[in-house]
């Protein structure tokens, strides 16, 4: 049994709410990927904290769950908007762009299967490999080249 993470009392911990997490994920452009750990690390650095923790239930898939989107912008957001056409998927938060630290697809439980995530990533041009066809373990080929630099986000509160 895994023991819970223990954070020393002298560490400054910041919590990220569901709205901010989802807004940051919405800023990941088509063709780019990120990890939950990278988002938490970026948020802790922006807030001058030692670490960042996510609240429970951080996966609302529909943007209609937002009351007010947080004020987050990518540096290249305007030019990216001109390149991308709006489609029916624009109402969905692109959680399929979240991968593990080793480049593997994540299992989001009842929200999204690995197969659904694989199909969405392949539509965006990523090559997904499966080392063992008997296992449901998929990996993004050359995932390090597709990771987004989250320091390009401009966050104002």
Task: Give the secondary structure arrangement, pairings included.
Elements: E1 13-16, H1 18-26, H2 36-46, E2 51-54, E3 72-74, H3 77-83, H4 114-123, E4 128-129, E5 139-140, H5 143-146, E6 153-155
Parallel strand pairs: 1-2
Antiparallel strand pairs: 3-6, 4-5
Top keywords for this entry?
157 residues, alpha+beta, Arc Repressor Mutant, subunit A, two-stranded parallel ribbon, two-stranded antiparallel sheet, 6 strands
CATH homolog superfamily: Winged helix-like DNA-binding domain superfamily/Winged helix DNA-binding domain
Number of domains: 1
* CATH fold node name: Arc Repressor Mutant, subunit A
CATH class value: Mainly Alpha
Helix content: 25-40%
Order of strands, main sheet, comes to 1-2
Please tally the β strands and state the result: 6
Mean of all residue-level pLDDT scores: 76
Cα-based radius of gyration, to the nearest Å: 16 Å
Detailed description of the structure:
With 157 residues, this protein is an alpha+beta fold. The chain has one domain: Arc Repressor Mutant, subunit A. It has five helices and six strands; from the N terminus they run βααββααββαβ. The chain has a two-stranded parallel sheet. Strands 3-6 form a two-stranded antiparallel ribbon. A two-stranded antiparallel ribbon has the order 4-5. The N and C termini lie far apart (40 Å).
């Amino acid at each position: 049994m895994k023991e819970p993470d223990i954070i020393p009392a002298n560490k400054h911990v910041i919590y990220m709410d569901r709205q901010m997490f989802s807004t940051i994920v919405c800023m990941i452009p088509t063709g780019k990927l990120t990890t939950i750990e990278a988002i938490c690390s970026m948020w802790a650095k922006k807030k001058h904290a030692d670490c960042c923790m996510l609240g429970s239930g951080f996966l609302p898939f529909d943007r209609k769950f937002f009351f007010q989107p947080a004020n987050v912008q990518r540096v290249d957001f305007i030019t990216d908007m001109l390149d991308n056409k709006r489609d029916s998927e624009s109402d969905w938060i692109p959680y399929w762009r979240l991968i593990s630290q080793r480049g593997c697809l994540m299992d989001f439980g009842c929200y999204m299967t690995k197969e659904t995530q694989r199909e969405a990533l392949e539509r965006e041009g990523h090559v997904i490999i499966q080392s063992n066809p008997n296992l449901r373990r998929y990996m993004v080929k050359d995932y390090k080249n597709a990771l987004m630099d989250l320091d390009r986000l401009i966050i104002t509160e």
